[in-house]
Specification:
Number of strands: 13
Structural class: alpha/beta
Oligomer: single chain
Strand content: 5-15%
Length: 375
């Protein structure tokens, strides 16, 4: 079976984990956490980066830092993971879903302004598959209406929009280092604070509402509870697992891009025959090959193709079920305007295996099997 995803592991991760154990510092904010934070800052240009226990908790931190309250509204696409909405729902906000663009699966920037009310507090663009949203227009809208922008860049590490790293463009950016992502610490994430006014409070929120970070830097003689917060700091063992991957991030990125390009080349004849659609990358975006997907005619054809791939020992999966169609989505949010593309495109999309060190012959087998299905 060719798996859909395969975790990245080699001996250096064991060495770093042992080093963290020998250093007797397992609770986080040790040498590896600091090195991961520094790598993110250097490679994105963000003001401050802080590892978190997940992208979900990074989003929760952003919602808390923005002081989202009951009655506030937050605009986002429905085609996203539940964490994007949950972070703001937990603060009492109502989610306002708008339709996506059919070419990138990203939020349709042209529909955002019409969804704004006097209750709107933030816009949350989701960079699907590591392909940037139309951030210039989103920032223009946010500035015109005095709104904050939180980038859900869970899939966006090593990707950019007009030369700017995804996650470094809005007020906050949120990364995921889940085991399914390009760079993994098992469970983990990071918050990127691009507005310097939030840096000190972000450290407090992340450390259970205490000023422990200032204490560790020698800025205060003891630390205490100073604000609301929670425990968003990951274990040092997780950071030690992640750091070796960041050290060869470019190699991993190039390897994945090579697999992505091979998929595209082999499946392009089906695209030319209008049997499937392939991913679209806008000229101003540099993607990171987080995923390779195809779009088929409809949900019935997708179901048959998944079964066909499984019969040939290939694991392929569909992706998000739109949030506005879920029980919680209907309870905590509303869809503004027409659902012209969100549901339709979600039912056509099929993700193919993609991971570091995916072999060329495996990509060829997958492509050949899909071509065979259409024959």
């Amino acid at each position: 079976m060719i798996p859909f995803n395969k975790s990245f592991f080699w001996n250096k991760q064991v060495d770093y984990i042992k080093e963290a154990i020998d250093d007797n510092k397992l609770s986080g904010d040790g040498i590896f956490t600091k090195r991961c934070d520094a790598w993110i800052e250097e490679n994105t240009g963000t003001e401050k980066a802080l590892l978190t226990t997940s992208c979900s908790t990074a989003l929760e931190m952003a919602a808390l830092l923005l002081d989202i309250r009951p009655g506030d509204e937050v605009i986002m696409p429905s085609y996203t993971f539940v964490s994007t909405a949950n972070a703001f729902v937990m603060r009492g906000a109502e989610i306002v879903f708008v339709d996506i663009r059919p070419d990138t699966q990203n939020i349709d920037e042209k529909l955002i302004e019409d969804a704004i009310t006097d209750k709107t507090k933030a816009i949350v663009p989701v960079h699907y598959a590591g392909v940037g949203c139309e951030m210039d227009e989103i920032l223009r809208i946010a500035d015109a209406h005095n709104l904050s922008v939180v980038e859900d860049a869970a899939q966006g590490v090593m990707a950019s929009y007009k030369g700017r790293a995804l996650g470094s463009i809005g007020d906050f950016g949120c990364f995921s280092f889940h085991e399914t992502k390009n760079y993994s610490m098992g469970e983990g994430g990071a918050i990127l604070i691009n507005n310097p006014d939030y840096v000190e409070m972000a450290e407090i929120v992340r450390e259970k509402g205490t000023d422990r970070s200032r204490f560790l830097r020698g800025q205060v003689d003891k630390y205490s509870w100073v604000e609301k917060g929670s425990s968003y700091l990951p274990s040092e063992l997780n950071a030690a697992y992640l750091m070796p991957q960041l050290e060869i991030a470019e190699e991993i990125n190039e390897n994945r891009l090579a697999s992505w390009k091979l998929y595209y080349e082999l499946l392009e004849p089906l695209k030319d025959r209008e049997l499937i659609e392939l991913p679209y990358i806008p000229g101003e975006c540099k993607h990171n090959a987080h995923m390779f997907y195809i779009k088929v005619k409809d949900i019935e054809e997708r179901t048959k193709l998944i079964a066909h791939l499984k019969e040939n020992e290939i694991s392929a999966v569909f992706h998000y079920v739109p949030l506005h169609s879920s029980k919680a989505g209907q309870k905590y949010g509303r869809f503004h305007g027409e659902d012209k593309y969100t549901t339709k495109e979600s039912e056509r999309l099929l993700r193919l295996p993609m991971f570091y060190a995916l072999k060329g012959e495996e990509v060829e087998k997958i492509a050949k099997t899909i071509i065979g299905f259409y024959k």
